[in-house]
Structure prediction request, 1068 residues.
Amino acid sequence: MTHVSHDACADLRQHLLALDEGQPLDTIRAEHVASCHACADLYASLMEVDTALSELQPVVAPPELVVRTLARLDSMNAGSVEAESDLETQPGILRGIFDLVFGGFAPLLRSLFWPLRQWRVHPKLGSALVAASAVCGLLVFGSLFAMREPAMQVSVASPEMDRDQDSVMDGQDVTDQATERSSAEAATAPAFAGRGERGPENGLATAGDFWEDDDRFAYHANVDSTTVATRGEGEVTGSIAAVQERTTPAVREPIDIAAAQDAPNRDRSALPAPPDDAEEIMQQVNRVRPITPRRQLMEQGVRVPTTPAVQSVSGIDTDGLSDGRRSSNTSAAQIFLRNHERTTGLHFQPARGHWSNTYVPGDPELRSLRQRLVDAGAMTVGSTGATGLELAEASQMFRQPFDAPRRSALALYVSADQRATEGERRVLLQVGLRGAARRGGTRPPMNVALVLDLTHPLAADDQARVRALLEAVGAARDAGDRVSLSVAGPRGGVLIAPGSFRHGQVQVALDQLFRDAERSTPAVATSLDAALRVSLTSLAANQDPTRSIGSSFALVITPQLVGSSSLERAAHVGAVAGIPTSVVGLGDAALPSLDRLALAGQGRRRLLTDAGSAPELVRAEFDAISQVVARAIRLRIRLAPGTRLVNVLGSRRLDAQATARVREAERSIDQRLARSLGIQADREQDAGGITLFIPAFYANDSHVILLDVVASGPGPIAEVSARYKDLLRLGNGEAHSSLRLARGTRGRGPLERAVFKNLLAHELSVALSQAAASLSAGDSAGARARLTAFSELSRGVRELMPALAMDHELAADFELAQRYDLALQTVMPPQRVALVDSLRLASRRKNVSVPIFSR
Amino acid sequence: MNPAAQSTPVKIKHQADGEASSDEDPTADALLRHAQGDPDAFAQIVTMYSSPIYGYLTRCGVHPAERDDLFQDILIKVHRAATEHPPTGPARPWLFTIAVNTVRSHFRKAKVRKVVQLQADPAKAESAPSHTPEADVATRQTVSWLEAEIRKLPLDQREVLVLCAVQGVDQKEVAATLDMPVNTVKTKLRRARLALAEARCRRQLVASREEQR
Prediction:
C-alpha cells in the first residue's frame, strides 16, 4: 500500500465526520482506503470502535445501593433527619457485641475478633478480613473432612506369577525409565496376594478394568477376571483368585504384605469357595500338561480360574475346548487362525530401515467424516434405527492395558500374542506407547502465519468461511500472540503484518480482496508455495528461540489445494526449521492433497465445512500445541537373530528420499530443542533395526504398532527402545523393553489376548474400510460380503477361544458388523453416501484412542 | 416506599416524540402519580432508571468512590423536582437533564477538589485501574481500552456518546436533554467516534513500535 496524497486523506477524514455508524464508503474513498495504509488503519479503527461500542455491556446499579437510596428517600418523606452517610453507619447489633466483648474478656477476645474490630474502624477492610477468615476456616475443616472420606479396600489373590526377564539382546540389565520397572530373572513365584486402598479418585470395580496403587503394588483386572499384578520390584502375572471390596473409614493402617501373601493359606474365609467344576477343569489341565503350582494352590483351597489350559488341536492354538463345542461357524476362524499361524510360503521383509509413522496426530479425517455425518441430519440408516453417526460412534478402539506414565512423558510396552513356543512360530509383536496425562496450564504465546489461498476465486460460502475463520483467530488471540496474514493469488503478498492483526484491518483487507477477485485477474499472481515460503521465512525471523518448539506455525487456508512438490518442499523445510505447517480445507476440499501437505509440514489437517464451527476449529488448533508431551520419538525395534519380519501392519518401508527427509526432520528437532530447551542433542547416529519416527505424541494418547514376525523358537524375540524429547521434564527420555518367548505350550494370558484382540480390531477396521469402498463403487453385495466375513471370523474366534467368548469389546464389534450388514441390506439410495461416510468413520475410529473433537 | 426490583439492564428503546402523557409515557405517569402523593410511584422511577443513571455515571468517568453519592444525589433531585417542579414536556429527557447537569456540576467542582482535598482513606476509596503491566495488557483489549478512552473525551462529546451510543437513547431525546439541535448531537457523536478511532490508531502505532524494539 502507498500513501497517495494528503488531500485525499484529509478528504476521507472529513467524510468520516459526516458518516454515521454502519454507513459504507463510496467507491472513490474505498479505493483510497485500499491504497493508503494510514487511512485504512483509521477506517479499520473506526469499525472496531463501533463494534466495541455496541458490545459494551450495560452497567447495573448495585442492588444494595438502590435499597439504600430508597430507604433514604423514605426517611426524607417521613420528615426525619437525613440519614447519615453509609460509610459512617454501624449496625446496632455489632456495636452491642463489641461493647460486650470489650467490657468482658477484652484482651483475649480482642485478639480473636480482630477482624471484627477492623470492621468497626474500617468496615470494608473488616468485611474482607472476616470473609477471608471464613474461607480459611472452610478450607481447613473441609480438608479435615476430606481426610475422613471412606476408602475402598480391595483384596487380591493370584495363584501364580511370572516375572520380567533380562534384556534379550546383550545380556545387560536394562532399566525401563519410563515404566520404572527393573528386570529380574525369570522365575515362577509363589502365590501372590495383597491389599490396597482406593481413594475417591480411583475407579474401582469388581468387574472391568481398574487400577490401584498404594505404593506397594498395582493391579489391573480385565473383565474376564484375569489380572496382571505389578509390584514395585517386578511384574507378576496370573489369574485372579478373588477380588473383594469393602468400604472402610479413611484407611491409614499399614498393609502387611508378608501377611497378605500368606492370606490364601491363613485366611481362606476371605476368599470365595472354588467353583464346582474346578476339579473337572484341573483334570482337563492335567491331561495335557504336568501338575503346576496352580494345582498345588487348588489343593490348598485357592480358587483357580475357569480359563482352561492350552490345548494344541490340529496345529492350531485354540486355547482349549473339547471338539464337541465347535460349530461350523468356526471354519472361517480356523482359516484365519491357520493363516495367522503359518510359517511357510511367506514373504519376508528386511527388519531394518525407516518405516512410515502410523501415529497421525489427531487423525483429521475423523473430524471431516464426522461433520459430514452431522450435516446428514437425524435420518436413520435403513432399518437399523440409528443414524450414520450413531453407528460409527459405536466403533471404539479397544482399551489398552497401558498405564499412563507418572514421571515421564511416554511409556513403552512390548508384548505379543503368544507366551511360549516349542519351535518356529508366527508371532504378533506389539509395541505400545502411552502419553502422560494432559498437562495443565495455559498455552505458550504463539507466532502464527495465516496463508490464504486465493489463486482461484472464492465462492460466497467459502468467503463466509474465511471471514468466520479469521474472526475466530482474532478472538482466540492472546495478548502475547502474533498473527500475520498473507495471500496467494492476485495482489498477493503479506496483507497484514505480525502485530497488526485486528478485526477492522482484516475486514477491510478482505473486502478489498474479494472485490478484486471479481474483477479481471492481473497477469502476475503470487503462487501458494511462494506465499508459504515468505510466511515461513518471516516466522523464522521473528520466532523466539526460548519458546517451546511448535509455538510458531503456519496455517494454510484453501478451498481447493492443488498439491505440488514445491509446496510440500516448502512445508517440509519449515518443519525442519521447527515451524510446522497445518492446513484448513474449506467446504469440499479434497482430502488427500491436504493430508500430504499436513504430513510434509508435520502439522495437522482440518476441514471447515460450517462457518459456525470456526471458533472451535481455531481453539483446537491453538490448544493442540499445549497437548504435545513428547517430541521426536524414535522407536527402534531390533529383532533377535532368527526372528524374521513379515510386515508392520498399517505401515510401509520408506524409500531413500523419504528416509532422508525423516532423518533431517529428526536431527532438526533434536538440535533445535538443544538450543531452545537445553535438551542435549543425541540423534547423530543410526543404530539399525526397524525405525519409526513420530514427530509428536499427545497427552493421554495410546498407540499400538503391530509387527507380524516369525520366531525361530523360544528365547529372545525383540528389543524395543524409544528415545524422545520429554517436554514435561525438559530432557532426553528413553524407554526400553524386550520380549522373549518361553519354551512350552502355554496358552494366551490376558496380555497376549489383548494383542490378539488388536489384530481382530485391525481386521474389522480393514473390513469396514473395504465395505465403504465397495459401497461407494455401487457394490452393495461386495460390501456385505466383507462384513459377513468379519462377522463369521469374530463369531468363530470367540467359539474357538472361550477366554474371548465373554469379551464385551469383541461382542460389541460383532454387533457393529451385524448392524452395518442390516444397514447395507435396507439402505435407501439417498442414504448411501451417509452410510459410506459412516463406514469410513467407524474404520478410522478403531485406530485412534482419543476422539479428535477433544483436541 | 417498598424496595423495588432492579431494572433490567437493557438499553433504553426508542420512543415516539411528543408531549408527555400518562397514557403513553410510563415515566411521566409515575412522576405524575408521585407528585400526587402516591407512595410507590417513585420506587417505580428508581426501578426504571437506576441502571441507566448508574451506567451514565460510570461511562462518563465519575470516580467509583463518588459514584454512589452522586447516584443518590441525582435521584434525590429528581424526587424533589418531581414534587416541586414537575416536567411539562417529555419525562425521560427531563430526568436525564438532571443527571447530566449533576455530572457537569460534579466535574466542575472536581477541578477545585483536586486542589484542596486531603488524601483519601485508602480503605474507603475503590482502587482505580493501576498502571501495572497486567493492567496495561488488559486495557489493550478493545472494550476495556474503549471505556478508558471515553473518559478522556471532552465532556460534551462524552455526554453525547454515552447517551446515544452506549445508553441507546434516541438522538432527538438526547438533543432535548442537552438542549441542542439534533444535527449538533450527530456532529458531536461523529467527532467522538472519530476521536476514539484516531486514539486507537495512535495506540496501535505505539504498540507496534514497542514490539519492534
Remarks:
- Chain B has nine helices and no strands.
